[in-house]
Amino acid sequence: MSESTSQSIDIAEHPVLHPVPRCMYEIGGAVGELLGAVTDQWMLVAPKANPAMLEMFADRDVVPFRDKTPWAGEFAGKYLTAAVQVMKTTQSRELKAWLKEFVGLLISRQAEDGYLGPWPRAARLTNSGTWDTWAHYHIMMGLMFWYEETGDAKALECACRIADLICEKYLGEKSPRLVDTGSTEMNLAPVHSLAILYRKTGNRRYLDMARQIVEEFGAKKDGEFLAGDYLHAALAGKQFFETPKPRWESLHPIMGLAELYWIRGEKSYRRAYEQIWWSIVEYDRHNNGGFSSGERATGNPYDPSAIETCCTIAWIAASVEMLKLTGDSVVADEIELSTLNSVMGMHSFSGRWATYNTPSDGARFASAHHIVFQARPGSPELNCCSVNSPRGLGMISDWAVMQSTDGVYLNYYGPSRMIVPLSGGVSLEMEQTTDYPASGRVLIDVRPSKPCELTIHFRIPYWSERAAVTLNGTRIQEVKPGSYLAIKRRWTQGDRIEIDLDMSLHFWRGERDCEGLVSVYRGPVLLAYDQRYNRARHAGEKAETYGQDPGQALWNMLTLPTFDARSLALEPATWDGWLPPHMLFTVKTADGGEAMLCDFASAGQTGSLYRSWLPFEGAPKTRLFSRANPLRSVR
Ligand SMILES: [Zn+2]
C-alpha cells in the first residue's frame, strides 16, 4: 500500500521504492484487453450474480443458518481488494461508481461491536472451525485500499471498528490468545492489516496487537509450534518449505514483517522477510512464475501438484513488498514473469472466469468447476480464487512505475501511457510504443509537463544479456542486465528512449519430476506446446479421454515430439482460426518435422491439453533463470 502516514507517527524506515499515488495508467495490448474484459465480465457483475457475498453478513444470525465454507467471509474483502486495484490500473469510472455502492452495502452490514463476518453472535471472531479473523483481514485490506483511492472516511472507520474488535478480544493477557484459536496461517494475517492501519491512524493499540501477533508466531503447545515461527525460522536460515506452516496463506502474516520493519526499523524483520522471499524463488516458484505445489511450499519447483491461483496472487503481493523493501530490479523481473505467464494464463481471455490451478502441464479448468465444492445458493461462482485472481492484474498499479527519493522507476514494459505526478505540480508522461513482449523493442516518449531535472531508472531484465538503449538516438554505454539503468538529465518534451531487449531464447533444464525436460523462454514469456496448434500430430493416437476430472494426472497424457536445443529457431506464425493465441511460432523438431509453440498464457485457453516442460535433445546448461540468492553466502 502507498504511504499515507499520519503526522504524529514516527516511521523508522521508508520503503526504498513505493507505488505512485494518483498515477494515471492506460495499459494497452493483451494485458489491457484482459483488464477491460475482467472489469466488464467479472468485477462489475460478480456481486449481483453472487449476492450471498454480501447477504451472508446480513442474515448471519438468522436460522436455519446458511451452510458456509470456513473462509466464506473472505469473498467480499478479496473481491474489493482486487476490484480497487483493477480500478487503479484502468481508471474505470463505471467500476468506481459500482464500488462506491458496494462499499456502502458492505459497511451497512457491520454489527454494532464492529463484527463484519458471516458467523452467528456466539462465534464472532472465536475462529472455532472458521477462518473468521482471516476474513476480517481481507475486508480491512479492501476497505483501506478503497480509502486510499477515494478518501472515504466511512471505509477507514469501518476498518478501525474491526481492528478495535480484534484488540478487544485478543490484545494483552487474554485467554485464549489469537494463536490458540487455530488455522493460524490464516487467522494471524491481521498482523499485516493492523500495522498498515496503525500508520494511517496512529492508534497505538493496533501496533501493539500487530507486535503481539509477531510474538505469537513462535508460540508452542506440547512442544509443537502453533503457528509458523516465521521470524525465528527464517533468521535461523531455514527455507520456507522447512518451516512449521508452509501453506500459502502464511505469506499474508509474513507481509506484516515488512510493514513492521518500516514502522519500527527492526532489521531482523527485514532479514527474515528477504530470506523467505529468496527461499521461495529458489525452491518453490514454478517455471510459469506460479507459486506453491498443492497449496504449499514443498521445496520442489518440479512438483506437478496444483499451482493455486490464490498462492500466486499472494506471491506477487509479497514480491511487491520485497520490491519496496530492496529496490532490486530482479524482484520486478520475477513479478513480470508471474504476471505475463501465470496471471494472464489463469484468466479466460473473455474475463468471465479464472482457474484454481494453472499448471505447467495439463489443462485449464475454471475454478467454479474445479473447486465447485465452495459454491452455495446465492454464490454459485464464488470461491477463494475467483474473487482473488483479478488482483494479479490490478497489482500492475503497484509496480509498473514506482518512485523513490532519487527519482522514478519504470518496471512495466508494454503498450501503455502513464502519467506520474511529480512535486511542484509537474507531471511526467511516459508513452510506450511497442508490441513487447512479442518483440523486445520498446520506444518510450518522455513528456514532462515542463522541463525538469530528474533521474528515470529503466529496468533491464536479468535475462536480457545484450540490451541496447539509446537516448534521442545516442547509444548509452554500460547497460547492465539485472539492474536499473539510471538516466539523469533535464527532461523535455520530445525526449525519446529506445530500448532493445535481448529476446534470444533461454532455458531451464528440469530436475526431479521434470528430469530430461526443458522450459524455453523468449524474454519473460514461457513457451508451451498446445495440442490445439499441433492437431495433425495428434490425430489417430491411442484412444484416451481427458477433461472430466480435474484431479486426473493430465501432465503425461500429451505425447510430444522431441526438440533440439542446438537448432531451435522460432519462425513467427499466425493462426487464421478463431481465438488466436497471443504468440505462435513454428519450430523444427529433432526428427526433422515441424511443430508449433505458443505463449504460456494462451496455452489451453480453449480446453486443449498443453505442456511447458518439453522433451529436448542437446539441452543447454541452465542459465540461472533468476539471480542466485545473495543471502546464501552470508549464512
Ligand atoms: Zn484459491
Compact description:
The chain has 635 residues and is of the alpha+beta class. The longest helix is centred in the first third of the chain and has 19 residues, at 132-150.
Give an overview of the whole structure.
It is built from 18 helices and 24 strands. With 635 residues, the protein is an alpha+beta fold. The strands form 4 sheets. Strands 5, 16, 17, 18, 19, 20, 21, 22, 23 and 24 form a 10-stranded mixed β-sheet that branches. Strands 2-8-9-10-15-12-13 form a 7-stranded antiparallel β-sheet. A 5-stranded mixed β-sheet has the order 1-6-7-11-14. Helix 4 (74-90) runs antiparallel to helix 5 and helix 6 (132-150) runs parallel beside helix 9 (190-201). The longest helix is centred in the first third of the chain and has 19 residues, at 132-150. It is globular. Residues 2-7 have low confidence and may be disordered. Zinc ion binds at residues 308-310, 384-385, 388. Zinc ion (ZN) binds next to helix 14.
